[in-house]
Batch of 2 targets.
Target 1
Amino acid sequence: MNRKIVFATGNAGKMKEIREILADTEFHVVSMKEEGIDLSIEEDGVTFEENAVIKAKAVAEKCGEIVLADDSGLEIDYLNKEPGIYSARYMGEDTSYRIKNANLIERLSGVSDEERTARFICAIAAVFPDGEVITTYGQVEGRIDYEEKGENGFGYDPIFYLPQLGKTTAQLSDDEKNSVSHRGEALRKMKEELKKRF
Ligand code: IMP
């Protein structure tokens, strides 16, 4: 049987990633828009998990399908885990990442390698037609680099350096990034949860 999943996102990159990860299953994923749902959702949770659940529940109220939603962001230890759940809104939603990244590098000026630790975090929530709600979680540890490097990815990727690979996540191919990323990990865990249920 071919089961539909609605992913509560408008982001084409996230749709591509989840479709690749679920490609060898019976699930087929459509975006909120493809399902004809147009919603602006206030993400007023205080954790990544809470925000993912808020988004998934809001969309689940509009359709009878399995709904997935994610929430993700960057935590920088030296900045008391900023920008955290405010990663998209940091310095304003419409501010370019060139400016946001330059600002974060500036705020870390004079800070040593050891103190530049950071992580990308992703929570994914699933709401099932019977009302059950589950979440999965992924994270990847790295450091904030001293300058932007790489052209791939998006957002904070050009400043997120992976010491074990000697590259920023913007210097990885899509496949390489999926295999190490917070979102890849959370999605693969969610795939296992879905397979247990259907
Ligand atoms: P979301 O789409 O509400 O989950 O917002 C996540 C925000 O966190 C994005 O807008 C980026 O600023 C940041 N972010 C999350 N994941 C990544 C990533 O893989 N690379 C770069 N930035 C990311």
Target 2
Amino acid sequence: MSIATTNPATGQVLKSYDPMSDAQVDAAIAQADRAFADLRRTTVAQRGRWLTAAADLLDAERDETARLMTTEMGKTYAAAQAEVTKCAAACRFYAAHAERMLADEPADARAVKAARAFVRYQPIGPVLAVMPWNFPLWQVMRFAAPALMAGNTGLLKHASNVPQTALYLEDLFHRAGFAPGCFTTLLVGSDAVDRILSDPRVRAATLTGSEGAGRSIAQTAGRELKKTVLELGGSDPFVVMPSADLDRAAEVATTARCQNNGQSCIAAKRFIVHTEVFDAFAQRFAANMAALRVGDPMDPATDVGPLASERGRDEIDAQVRDAVERGATVLCGGEKPTGPGWFYPPTVVTDLRPEMRIWSEEVFGPVAGLFRVSSYAEAVEVANGTAFGLGANAWTTDPQEQERFVTDLDAGNVFVNGMTTSFPELPFGGVKNSGYGRELSALGMREFCNTKTVWVGRGEATAGAGAHAE
Ligand code: NAP
């Protein structure tokens, strides 16, 4: 894949880059390694000041940065502005809370026959971040803010279609005060990742992306014995039960499916509706979806911009056509438009069957699959019936049913009477083929820390009865 900015609203290539050579990549890794030696010795308070400065720059530069993202990957300008603001808030969150998250945690010294025992969180070194284009700033920030606060350095291999946002991020952290090498953008294709991750100076990797990329990185990391965090795809269920507020559920379902032009890992993708309210929900949902305005992502009146790539649009078009050929019913949308740009209309398909691709694959665009179920048990069975387990949404006002969904849905997060989203305060991640490890919160910061056990004795010959040599 070439490294270039191509405007998805027009299909025009605006700027392209030569990939960095192996020698340039090696020099960048060496610099990240040297920068780590200094960064780890700075105080949390100092790093917090730099991250706060990054937040201030993000706020001040919100509109230009948002325009850049919209031009590179097609999200609406309003959504891009909100993404910049969210990134600034995450920087401030980690700047404010890292001291507590990284503080030594005392343990029961008597129980372990020590004078003192505690856990210390320390940075591990340069971490490779392989990131996707769909939230080009936020996906990187939710790795970078906690990683830099912990004292790690970051090497970013961003998606090949968002090079300017990638370069902006390096520049941002540099201007905020982090020394050269603390955060470096590597303009390389995915074929360079194996070599970078195999470098002994690179200590770990985080990937947000597809299952295929996850398998590839996990394979290299396994061979090299390196820690990874993988945030992969999802096909989140959105279950609607008879007690739900249908108007609200249909409204949120529309946003949950079409935000970011339908290209979100945590978008609701499968709408699983109890038969008692199926027709009423389907009618409201399809009407809402059909009413969305598709068009120029810079136009404030636009709800849904183009897909980020022609390949992405062809893929969802093929998934819809496959379902229709096998007997699915289209309630709205379903026709690939002609003309420039990679637009696709909000679409609802129902009468789905397991042999259709849409049943089990992730659909990365504004296309909703609508499933009819006749009981709680069947709703959970369909909801859990994919290889993914990222997020899950359940709509019910029955407190007991809410509790059962929380326990029974096999996903990294469950949102009841709402849509899945991410907050710096809450851990984020998946189970099954949606990946492993967690981002955000204190857990996200500690993924790339050495959780060091410290035991300080009184100098006796042994640790005492009950201790075992390992
Ligand atoms: P993708 O092809 O996997 O690309 C993501 C990143 O991985 C890009 O930087 C890409 O580089 C790189 N990459 C691709 N193949 C690779 C390989 N074999 N080895 C190493 N790196 C590789 O993903 P996408 O299709 O563009 O993005 C959408 C996917 O990301 C969806 O499945 C979505 O659900 C998932 N996603 C997950 C989360 C989450 O938090 N769980 C969030 C957002 C998106 P190039 O661009 O150079 O190919």
